[in-house]
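Input sequence (212 aa), recorded before submission:
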Amino acid sequence: MFIIVNNERIEIKFDPYIYVNVWGPEHFYYVEVREYVKDNPESKFVEGFHFNRNANVVKDYNFYFFGEFYGDYEISIFKFVKNVGLQKIHSHRYNDCGQLVQFNLVTDNIEDAKIWTKSIDEYQKKHGCIVKVNSKFEEINNQYSTEIQSPYKTYNIGRFHKTVNDFKSVGETRKYGNLWFGNWKVFWSYQHPRNWKELSAKEISDDILGLS
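Predicted structure, token format:
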């Protein structure tokens, strides 16, 4: 999604992970991701990123948080105003109600796919989203929306191996082989909150969709 706020243009995506970019006249912008955990009214800090648009320094214009599974995230964007400091210019809390959400079922086993659709149905009932399913099984896909448009969010449900060759994991394994953010958020990989080898098929999908 694109948002225009005065002279700033902001892009935010959750497909399949958080991506933020900011364009504007200032040199310095800051994006912060916080998460509301288990309906707690107070959010917790997850990750922050400083955009430096000064052409004289090395810069990175894009912010990513690669966790693909569900999180009740709020993204806030700030700009630095001289003699004032950081000023919030926009915030967006994850909300897929009425939005198209795509669920990719990565399996050759139709029984796994059927089990995972049970979690998808629970997710749809809880969130009120429009469900689109992409799998190898047309009889399952055809039970859901066939809309052709970019989804608000994509979930990949499967058994994804953790590997040190994954560029997104390099330098991020900070706590006993897990990923660690904000000094509190610990998870097994960017695609699984817990090690899937210890879980049933239903537990795998419930974990990814925030139902466990």
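Checked by second reader. The CA atoms of residues 99 and 193 lie 24 Å apart.
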